[in-house]
Task: inverse folding
């Protein structure tokens, strides 16, 4: 073939390939009953047997969710409308053959959970997580995708998404991975946006808010978001290169949704039942901080164990203590630096996660890496049988958060000028900008490069590969922070919830607590301590003031209808409080300011 003809032939092949795109449409005529009508066309098929699937999980989630359970009235034909043969080899797959090069699919999707994982369709919105909504063909994963949303004009709906817009209702994605990672909020939502710059490039930060509040509330809340966006850039020194030059907060604060936050490459889903008027202005903002930090840490600084994301099985990673946990550390720190939380509030709030981690018996069984491996069992995963997570699991969010805190303070003490921000910058340059997926060993060697071999090995050997607890009291001293516990406060360790004035053991007691030692178990009803009964938390707290650590008391409780008595020895309450030291030295205050002040 002559060179010119060969080039023309290659161009023809390229154009032909470019025209092969998978097409979807979604309409919502029966939204009142939580149904969407989905249609798909898969053209230019080269093999006779084609497998179609619904995803079993979703980007940002690690457990299985089996979205096929909400698909029904499925019809599959060829391009001329001829019905095709179908075999179901498993619950989430349809194998078809006998087509004419094109397959057309239509089905009804039921969805009534509005969060970062599922889809919700009703007359307030069509809140669509793509894996929970659209059937796909795995063998066509590299094809571009075009999707059209037939919005409800009678409900004033419009579309917010990170997908590339062709017009108001039609959007494209370059491939299946990007499509699956692109949630959609279709509603009568408010829009705010502002411009930011990074390395000479300008990006638009969009805020789409579906809520029942006022425009003034939107403006006030958006000002807080602006501060977060600017402070997070300071950690890494630059913004990611957002595709299409845009990052979008897809926010839904409505009474019909479920509380959640879910990161995506150029957007995030934020849902909560709290309105901005009902404490949402303060209590919802932490999720904003957490999810935007993921634009760097998790979306681009990406564990190798999650690349590529697998839509057909649970996704397990040993690095979630870093991807989720260090992000959780920065969640509150950024709110403090942005002035949304005071230093006093921030420091006081650190005690919760420290108490949770250092009092957990689970550290005897798993280190942070192994806790990360548990994600498919706990990350919105559902099972019918009871589990003993109070004794065997620590959330990698909290575990990683307190380790991020310890590493930050340790670096600042180790050598003047060192801090976690600059370590994160180094990891960003090596694995985020380049988008080279990292391993845990990469995190270790990067810390060696930043702070020295001895420092890095001590941190990883003690706190990541082992499950030792940093000495927070010593660390806090250098920053004018007091770690306080009350040696005179008695502790029983009984997890109690009150139902119709009954004090019920709500969960399996933690190993090593007085409650565990005397054999209390979930479901027991506590009748009295010595001869004193109580019907609410305040009465119980007042009762316990009578006792000191070391006192022996008689616990009366009922199990399976039988009354039982057991002697319990109260111990010292292990919980600590964290407070700003009122008489801290100037050197400590300066260190604290350098850590917590706006950047």
Result:
């Amino acid at each position: 073939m002559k060179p010119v003809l060969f080039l023309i032939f290659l161009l023809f092949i390229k154009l032909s390939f470019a025209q092969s795109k998978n097409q979807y449409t979604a309409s919502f005529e029966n939204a009142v009953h939580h149904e969407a009508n989905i249609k798909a066309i898969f053209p230019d098929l080269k093999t006779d047997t084609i497998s179609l699937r619904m995803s079993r999980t979703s980007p940002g989630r690690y457990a299985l969710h089996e979205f096929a359970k909400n698909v029904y009235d499925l019809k599959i034909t060829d391009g001329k409308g001829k019905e095709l043969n179908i075999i179901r080899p498993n619950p989430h797959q349809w194998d078809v053959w006998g087509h004419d090069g094109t397959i057309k699919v239509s089905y009804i999707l039921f969805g009534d959970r509005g969060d970062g994982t599922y889809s919700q369709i009703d007359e307030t919105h069509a809140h669509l997580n793509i894996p929970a909504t659209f059937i796909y063909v795995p063998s066509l994963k590299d094809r571009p995708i075009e999707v059209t949303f037939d919005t409800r004009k009678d409900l004033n709906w419009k579309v917010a998404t990170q997908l590339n817009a062709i017009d108001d209702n039609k959007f494209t994605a370059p491939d299946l991975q990007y499509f699956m990672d692109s949630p959609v909020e279709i509603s009568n939502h408010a829009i705010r946006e502002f411009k930011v710059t990074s390395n000479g490039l300008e990006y638009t930060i969009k805020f789409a808010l579906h809520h029942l509040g006022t425009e003034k509330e939107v403006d006030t809340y958006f000002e807080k978001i602006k501060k977060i966006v600017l402070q997070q850039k300071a950690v890494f020194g630059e913004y990611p290169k957002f595709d299409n030059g845009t990052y979008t907060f897809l926010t839904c604060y409505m009474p019909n949704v479920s509380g959640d936050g879910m990161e995506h490459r150029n957007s995030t889903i934020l849902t909560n039942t709290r309105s901005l008027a009902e404490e949402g202005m303060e209590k919802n903002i932490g999720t904003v901080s957490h999810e935007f930090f993921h634009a760097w840490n998790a979306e681009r600084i990406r564990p190798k164990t999650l690349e590529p994301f697998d839509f057909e099985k649970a996704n397990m990673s040993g690095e979630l203590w870093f991807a989720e946990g260090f992000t959780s550390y920065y969640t509150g720190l950024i709110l403090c630096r942005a002035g949304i939380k005071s230093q006093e509030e921030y420091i006081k709030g650190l005690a919760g996660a420290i108490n949770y981690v250092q009092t957990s018996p689970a550290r005897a069984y798993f280190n942070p890496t192994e806790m990360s491996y548990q994600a498919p069992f706990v990350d919105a995963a559902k099972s019918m049988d009871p589990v003993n997570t109070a004794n065997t699991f620590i959330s990698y969010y909290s575990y990683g958060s307190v380790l991020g805190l310890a590493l930050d303070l340790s670096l600042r003490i180790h050598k003047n000028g060192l801090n976690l921000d600059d370590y994160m910058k180094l990891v960003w340059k090596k694995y985020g900008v380049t988008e080279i997926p990292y391993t845990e060993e990469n995190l270790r060697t990067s810390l060696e490069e930043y702070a020295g071999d001895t420092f890095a090995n001590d941190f990883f050997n003690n706190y990541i590969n082992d499950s030792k607890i940093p000495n927070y009291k010593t660390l806090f001293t250098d920053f004018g922070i007091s770690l306080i516990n009350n040696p005179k406060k008695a502790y029983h360790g009984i997890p109690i919830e009150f139902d119709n004035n009954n004090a019920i053991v709500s969960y399996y007691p933690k190993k090593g607590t007085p409650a565990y030692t005397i054999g209390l178990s979930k479901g027991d009803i506590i009748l009295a301590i010595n001869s004193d009964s109580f019907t609410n938390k305040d009465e119980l707290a007042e009762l316990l003031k009578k006792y000191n650590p070391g006192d022996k008391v008689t616990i009366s409780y009922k199990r399976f209808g039988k009354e039982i008595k057991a002697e319990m020895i109260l111990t010292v309450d292990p919980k600590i409080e964290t407070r700003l030291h009122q008489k801290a030295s100037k050197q400590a205050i300066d260190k604290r300011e350098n850590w917590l002040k706006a950047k």
